[in-house]
Amino acid sequence: PSVPRRTNRLINEKSPYLLQHAHNPVDWYPWGQEAFDKAKKENKLIFLSVGYSTCHWCHVMEEESFKNKEIGEIMNKNFVCIKVDREERPDVDKVYMTFVQATSGGGGWPMSVWLTPDLKPFVGGTYFPPEDGVHRVGFRTVLLRIAEQWKENKDALLENSQKILEALLHRSEIRVRGQESPPPAKEVMATCFQQLSNSYDKDYGGFSESPKFPTPVNLNFLFTYWALHRTTPEGARALQMALHTLKMMAHGGIHDHIGQGFHRYSTDQHWHVPHFEKMLYDQGQLAATYSRAFQISGDEFFADVAQDILLYVSRDLSDQAGGFYSAEDADSYPTTTSGEKREGAFCVWAAEEIRALLPDPVEGAAEGMTLGDVFMHHYGVKETGNVSPMKDPHQELKGKNVLIVRCSLELTAAQFGLELGRLGALLREGRRRLALARAQRPRPHLDTKMLAAWNGLMISGFAQAGMALAKQEYVSRAVQAATFLRRHLFDPTSGRLLRSCYRGKDNTVEQSAVPIQGFLEDYVFVIQALFDLYEASLEQGWLEWALQLQHMQDKLFWDPKGFAYFSSEAGDPSLLLRLKDDQDGAEPTANSVTVTNLLRAACYSGHAEWVEKAGQILAAFSERLQKIPITLPEMARATAVFHHTLKQVVICGDPQGEDTKEMLRCVHSIFSPNKALMLADGDCAGFLHRQLPFLASLERKDGKATAYLCSNFACSLPVTSPQELRGMLCP
């Protein structure tokens, strides 16, 4: 008979990450008053462990330490142990990560921090092995030493933690220092371009040797830089850097050639061997970026990649109620009978597996050539595996292949004497059969938590692709997801966003007993999504909701003294710091995106104070933007949009009319970083007409759909043909 597993308090949580730890011998608490009270009452230190459900080293530390009965006893006896899902509580994560980075010079997850009973950090790190090794002290030793310190030197520890907190407060402050104006856009753009150009890898694309992250923020900066400098050599180079990077990523192993979508990052310079988890925020941003690449270049290759990402998300990360799940794990069981999970097991192939699946002789190719030969040549498959042992420290990928396109279709076709169309069909058939075989493998863990911020990024991905690729079904999917947000991640009585909801039993959507309120990033990415969705669908309800949320964001997060927005709202006594992020990383930072949001909000409402706020944010980050804009490429991009003023592209026409649709298709097909599109349908009682009275003065010329380009509420002469409109938008 199976022994009933012990459970701790995490069994009552909704987060998949916390539930993964519900059967540890550690007496885990979730972040909250119950744990804080216990620490104070028993005068115990707190051990805080922060991670997320698709984090490889979090799994390792759980297997080695948190499932170890003896280590569990040491933890329970000496500490109040708290587990946090960083995706649910980015505010808690950021406070203590700021501490870990400041004191150890590095950071990452799992994050392990020891706090005084009043939540002040004094020791921290990331992953600890269970026992002492040659170079690292083991987790057991650290636990015992810290417990000893608390017994012997309590006062010194408390005093030290207070000093650390004061230093952190000082270090992390971002505010306007006397100078009130935004930095000069020209210099910021030039410096950012130069810094990206210097770190660019001209062979393989990307902006570092290894590891290589997709960083859509860099590519979007380069597209905007190109749009403003089209005729210069620098402009041409910016575009070439972005498009080459996107091509190399799509050919690489970071792109899942069989199951679609992108993995989180590459461990090597060639985009070949990835960490295999797939994150929603990457899919959303990359779908938008590949769509822009198609708009600019007209190359169908980029449109295909955007569609590939959206196919993956629609199939594997979509809830039936319309929301999007957070992530898929990297680790899974190689076969249904395996005892332990391996990283990448779901995605990698042995050469003999591929040969067995693709044995068909290929007509017209050299004697005895099979579909397997063609496929393996094109995707870089080797008999002994194509992963270098250097990139596989745990030998999890020994003898396996990560598919990577090593040569062009033309080269492969020439090698086998095939025509291009025929080769394309053969490779498609190969991918189809591998996908069927892969569907028999145990799937990796799916994190079914649904976050407002990441859902916002994904809605933007669908909306932007819908516009650029002229695909209505993508716009419809974005509308479905925005409707889901409104229903499950918004509280109409308070007018506030919620951070997260969860897939419950029987596939219902559940909320935790005490819902987590939305953070700055939730507002910013959802507002951006609603503006994108308005431009794609022209349904004014999305615009109205975006402006309401912008007012709420101002109320909850704006810093009237130092300018810019705090990441979390005031009034939570368990948060020691209210921080402002200052780095555009895998996701852009909220203050960067909000600059463009504010400019768009002003365009659709006529509220000039939003333009003023945008300038104040740029002023608050001015020093960083002038010295190291490469850390804030999205904000550097927004500096240019601020400087060049957003142009209102107004189409006056009947929404159902063919002439109106033709004008809209023209606007949607053009990449223009500083435009805000609106449709004046002549309904004076509608939301837009009430916000912008000047629309009433714009007429349809000769009864045809007519476009105006307006800036600061002064408008160009009317044009009625898509060709003339294109000329105005691409000067």
TrEMBL record:
Domain Spermatogenesis-associated protein 20-like TRX, first and last residues per copy: 7-168
Coiled-coil parts of chain: none
GO biological process: carbohydrate metabolic process
Signal peptide: none
Pfam families associated with the record: Thioredox_DsbH
Taxonomic superkingdom: Eukaryota
Protein name, UniProt field: SPT20 protein
Lineage: Eukaryota, Metazoa, Chordata, Craniata, Vertebrata
Gene designation: Spata20
